[in-house]
């Protein structure tokens, strides 16, 4: 199992844990870095529920649950947050945290198909027991749709030529392995864009992973549910690594911070919508130079924190 260093660990836990006796949710257990740190802050009566859609992560969580009676884990995605809380018998909680993206062990396991640096089957599913792997999803997509996915989720300026190259390779029967995808993307890029900075396949792999796992829709459902399940004073803390994810988190929270829908020129509010959240960390908190030097993954991490109003 690959080592996974949790990013922004101290500020994330400090923002989330307002009461050592409270009930908390780690919506992205991963390999338990944040969960274990949160358990250290909790009293014997505190409780932590963790969620993850990755079976390997759930198995790791079950090992932790066997050692600590304050902890339990559920195999589910963000969109099932409400159901997971209901199953646990919890109504409202003191804090809910999300650490988005892919974990180091997922990247290190070539068989999962997440990494362009390790050859494996073209899968990319977070939950290998559900849905279609990437290689099957590519069979029925057209060039325009694929380019839109790569552009929207990867912010890739060469999305059109990359999509064209991928589907050309697919039609030739050469699109079942991550090494094949990496090679196609690399050579689809202009020569000037192939060297220097991040690997040229980084954005495309990210975009395709987000598409396969429906990550943006899952995130939207999860954040909306989380805000509704917080106690007054309860905290929502979200670490994102992708600008689209961060914008989604920001906009969903902002809609509850400034809930009024009246036109700006109205002298008084007539819609009656009151704020349900307030910002504690609206400007994203970033990792410092020390953490970035120790963990390169933290370079793109953004932490936003909000609190539920009465």
Structure overview:
This protein has helices at residues 9-16, 33-41, 55-67, 81-88, 104-108, 134-137, 143-154, 159-171, 178-188, 202-212, 215-228, 243-257, 289-294, and strands spanning 23-26, 47-52, 71-75, 93-99, 230-240, 277-285, 302-308. With 310 residues, it is of the alpha/beta class. The chain folds into 2 domains: 9-104 and 215-308, Rossmann fold (3-Layer(aba) Sandwich), CATH 3.40.50; 128-212, Putative methyltransferase TM0872, insert domain (DNA polymerase, domain 1, Orthogonal Bundle), CATH 1.10.150.170. It is globular and about 60 Å long. The mean pLDDT is 93.
Outline:
By secondary structure, this protein is an alpha/beta fold.
Features:
310 residues, alpha/beta, Rossmann fold
| Shape call | globular
Using only C-alpha atoms, the radius of gyration works out to 21 Å
* Helix-strand sequence: HEHEHEHEHHHHHHHEHEHE
Number of helices: 13
Which structural category do the helix and sheet elements fall into?
alpha/beta
* Overall number of structural domains: 2
Strand order of the largest sheet: 3-2-1-4-5-7-6
Bin the helical content: 40-55%
Q: Strand tally, please? A: 7
Q: What's the name of the CATH homologous superfamily of the largest domain?
A: Vaccinia Virus protein VP39
How far do the termini sit from each other? 43 Å
Give the strand content: 15-25%
Q: Output mean pLDDT.
A: 93
CATH third-level topology of the largest domain? Rossmann fold
Major β-sheet annotation:
7 strands, mixed
């Amino acid at each position: 199992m690959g080592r996974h260093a949790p990013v922004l660990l101290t500020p994330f836990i400090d923002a989330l844990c307002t009461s050592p006796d409270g009930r908390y949710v780690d919506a992205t257990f991963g390999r338990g870095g944040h969960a274990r740190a949160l358990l250290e802050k909790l009293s014997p009566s505190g409780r932590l529920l963790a969620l993850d859609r990755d079976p390997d992560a759930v198995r790791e969580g079950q090992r932790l649950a066997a050692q600590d009676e304050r902890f339990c884990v559920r195999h589910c995605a963000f969109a099932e947050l409400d159901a997971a809380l209901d199953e646990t018998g919890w109504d409202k909680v003191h804090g809910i945290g999300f650490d988005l993206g892919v974990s180091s062990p997922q990247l290190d396991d070539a068989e999962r198909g997440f990494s362009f640096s390790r050859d494996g089957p073209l899968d990319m599913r977070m939950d290998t027991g559900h849905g279609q792997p990437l290689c099957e999803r590519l069979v029925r997509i057209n060039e325009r749709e694929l380019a839109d996915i790569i552009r929207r989720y990867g912010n890739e300026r060469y999305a059109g030529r990359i999509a064209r190259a991928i589907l050309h390779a697919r039609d030739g029967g050469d699109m079942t392995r991550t090494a094949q995808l990496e090679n196609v993307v690399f050579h689809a890029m202009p020569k000037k864009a192939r060297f220097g900075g991040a690997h040229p396949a980084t954005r495309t792999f990210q975009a395709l992973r987000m598409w396969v796992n429906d990550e943006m829709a899952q995130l939207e459902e999860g954040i909306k549910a989380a805000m509704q399940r917080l106690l007054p004073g309860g905290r929502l803390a979200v670490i994102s690594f992708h600008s689209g994810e961060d914008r989604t988190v920001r906009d969903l929270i902002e809609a509850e911070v400034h809930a009024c829908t009246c036109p700006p020129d109205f002298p008084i509010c007539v819609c009656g919508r009151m704020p349900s959240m307030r910002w504690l960390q609206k400007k994203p908190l970033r990792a410092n130079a020390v953490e970035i030097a120790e963990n390169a993954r933290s370079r793109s991490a953004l932490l936003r924190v909000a609190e539920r109003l009465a």
